[in-house]
Amino acid sequence: MSPALEALMQADGTPYSAKGVMLEPFVHQVGGHSCVLRFGEQTICKPLIPREHQFYKNLPLEMRKFTPQYKGVVSVSFEEDEEGNLCLIAYPLHSESGDSENKDPSADCQEPKSKMLKWSNKKQSPLLQEKENYSKDRARNSRKEDKIMSYNRDEVQQQQAEVLYFSLEKGNVVSQIKHNPWSLKCHQQQLQRMKENAKHRNQYKFILLENLTWRYRVPCVLDLKMGTRQHGDDASEEKKANQIRKCQQSTSASIGVRLCGMQVYQSDSGQLMFMNKYHGRKLTLAGFKEALYQFFHNGRRLRHELLSPVLRRLREMQAALEACESYRFYSSSLLIIYDGDPPRTPARPSRSSHGAGEASSPEVDVRMIDFAHTTCRHYGEDSVVHEGQDSGFIFGLQNLITIISQLEEHSTD
Questions:
Q1: What is the largest CA-CA distance in the chain?
Q2: Which regions span the lipid bilayer (predicted)?
Q3: Beta-strand pair 333-339/219-226
Q4: CB 167 within 8 Å of CB 269
Q5: How much is the pTM?
Q6: Domains in the chain, CATH or no CATH each
Q7: What's the angle, vertex CA 70, arms to CA 105 and CA 91, rounded to 5?
Q8: Rounded to a whole number, what is the distance in angstroms from the first to the last CA of the chain?
Q9: How far apart are CA 138 and CA 136, in angstroms?
Q10: Residue 143: exposed, middle, or buried by beta-carbon count in 10 A (0-12, 13-18, 19+)?
């Protein structure tokens, strides 16, 4: 075990031994197609994409407060035991020529000999087991074509509901939050890909990143795809045309932002609501505003006390991006996170890295994620060099600020 990896695991409260770290599904992933896994309480990991890795390693100082903390790289292997249980285990990354950042101090250590820790794919989906837990008639302003239905484990890969409600029993709601439908889908797809490739390749690089949801009891998460353009400069003509079509047919073209995923807790009914990207693409401007209202509404009232800190963060982010020369954040997302079931005690000092003076405000987080198609002039191998600021992303931010400001004004009427 690498001393650096061991120290990270200890800080994270992750059970460990010389064999590495057992990876589990990250249950608060609401958007994206890349599988995100839970490394520990405060750390997640996702498949390494060289461009995204380069972004995190060369992050401008002014952008650090608006992105997850980068924690390094691990090697992930896929295993299947005699009973068919699927295991993903993270190990320290052995040093490679030209990549001194990842040099492992214990690179010469022996391979693990003892039996692996594992989690079973047979125990993956308690959230999806009982159909009666899903409500079919709770959607505010829902349209007839919205597919609101429930799934058992075997149906999830074939079909995907766009809006789902899951009823939590009264009492300890925290312990009941298992897998949301989107994280389960991404996780199963990742396992299937790695299983199919296992004979040819069984070592994958994953990057370690800060788990932005770790400090919240019941994280409410909004994933917004930002910008008027989603395709990277290196996209094929087919990919480019597909991304342009998605933008034109959604709110991306008109306001520079569209809903990519949502998880929100409604305390009046004890329900978790999930909304995926397919629903988000269909939303009109009015539908998008309604979805934002739903995200900040707990079933009893609009959480208006969250709006001011969110707006402050968005304005700070806009100022930082306006100072970011040459960057383009194509296909990046914006996450907004808050606690759907905050402690009943007085607000504790914020442990977030948002700076002093916010200890008394509700704990919210606003961050940029997903940089697989990011570019700037410092990436020497890129054929296209952009000038100025990312106007598409900033356009989306400005419209988001306007819409949330309108929510704030109406909440005080």
A1: 67
A2: none
A3: antiparallel
A4: yes
A5: 0.80
A6: 3-124+180-210 (no CATH), 153-177+213-411 (3.30.470.160)
A7: 40
A8: 58
A9: 6
A10: exposed
